[in-house]
Amino acid sequence: MEHKKDIALLLAAAIMWGFSFPALKYALSAYDTFPIIAFRFTIASVLLAIPVVLARHRITRREMTLGIAAGVILFYSFATQVYGQITISPATSAFITGLYIVIVPIGGALLGKKMPANKIAFCVLLAVLGLWLLTGASFSLGIGEILTLLSAVGFAAHILLLSRSSECDSNAFTLVQMAVAGALSWIALPFAGGLPRTYPFEPLLAILYLGIFASALAYWFQTIAQKRVAPSSTALIFICEPVFAAISSVFFFQEYLSPLKLIGGGIILFAMYLSQR
Fold first, then answer.
1. Rounded CA separation 14/242 (Å)
2. d(CA 76, CA 181)
3. Cβ(29)–Cβ(203) under 8 Å?
């Protein structure tokens, strides 16, 4: 049964992720991709370790196995998303990332060894049309859009994986996935330019937001709620994420949303909604 509390937690997570897109863009003005990801998930891991230690919880084999898999997926998803957002706007990044909501039922059908329903095929076509309009009605995608599309596949896989974590302790599972994503970021750091030489304060505040709210708190909320909320319902709630990203992008970056971009984003939102009905 899907409780109002769980729905509220997922909505709060969607809002925090929505505001993370302009925060990420601001962090990218001073820091490279892997320092941002490494700091983000390290901050989240430290915060999530506190309740696990205080509860003296011993992490189980299932929590460790699923947590490692989720952490690897998160590392891949955020690495491609952050690299992608270097060349595209926060709102465009959010709408393209949001296509994972259409990908979730496709992945669910494939895992069940069934062909996706005709409605899902129609939603995919709608999403492709929306993406075409969102990127300027061009027949070619830039590297930023391609990387962000690849990240959407990863976020869809993450939602499907979390549906198997109902028997896991929420704190422990979230801690493991954050720690794994952070560790992989630190391993990749020396091969991608290393640590920054200076640490501008205001972009650092953006990274703190990403670590505390958009990682530790949001993923903890998602892990708790998805024990009782189906992946398809979760994806439906997360439709709000690109909406809040667009609003915050206009507010913080004065991003101009052209009529073509608004129509494309609206079609993508409709495809997301229809895919979950």
1. 9
2. 8
3. yes
**E strands within the chain?**
none
Q: Give, in degrees to the nearest 5, the angle at Cα 27 between 23 and 31.
A: 165
100-159 confidence digits (pLDDT tens):
888 888 887 777 756 566 777 788 788 888 888 877 776 678 899 999 999 999 999 998
End-to-end Cα, the chain, rounded Å = 17
User: Alpha helices of the chain — where are they, by DSSP H?
Assistant: 4-28, 33-54, 61-85, 90-97, 100-111, 118-134, 143-162, 170-188, 201-211, 218-225, 231-237, 240-253, 259-275
| Structure-token match 């494309």, residue found | 264
Residue 234 belongs to what H/E stretch? helix 231-237
Q: Where are the domains of the chain?
A: 4-275
Question: Could you give the CA distance from residue 243 to residue 24 in angstroms, rounded to a whole number?
Answer: 16
| Average pLDDT score over the chain | 88
Cα 86 to Cα 25: distance, rounded to the nearest angstrom? 8
- Report the amino acid identity of residue 91: A
Task: Give residue 112's Cα distance to chain centre.
Answer: 24
Contacts of 183 (CB under 8 A, 6+ apart): 71
Q: How many residues are present in the chain?
A: 277
Residue 16 CA neighbour count, 13 Å, CB half? 21
Please give the backbone phi and psi of residue 19, each rounded to the nearest 5 degrees, phi first.
-75, -15
